Fold:
Amino acid sequence: MHLPDFCECHHPLVQALHGQEDGKLLHQFQQEPEQGRAFVALFCRYALIVYSLVGHAAPTGVQVDYLFATTWRYLYQQMRDFAPPEGMTSLQTWLVDRTGDWLTRAEIPPPESIHYRLPAAPPPLWCYLEEALQKLASPLRLVMLLKTIGHWSDAQIAQELELTPDQVAALIPIGQRELMTHLPADIWSIYLEGAHPDA
Structure:
């Protein structure tokens, strides 16, 4: 099985956290939601282990990548409330257990219905984009959900929401700008290579 290279692991903001213990990174992730680098650092530390586990649970590469991303979305949600027992220094066993738990319940869609591509949306970026989407006001949130996650055309969105295609086309750049302002500044820097719009 070919293991992917995760470019975010080489970013200076992530490299700076290389020597920190898992517990400290977890605490930073939980207590500083306006920053994303601690979660990215944990992702980089354990991505290949999780990918290896997931690689045996799906028959095609597209399905493996999709399952890998949904596994990390599940781990992201689980980590938000996880209180490690006293003396726990590594999250590896916990992450392996949680990954196994997810793999027993996850439904894997057929390859032709999967639009996800790992290089285009690494799991940490996907997690933070989903959070940013939830902060958009409706109907802008619905337009962006249908466009970015559902991959609907402007005409399909217009028909569903009783708008014109021109109205949908005008809403999308507004939604993209608002979406980016809700992303943590360090996530923007790590994945989108530039200054955050609010900086």
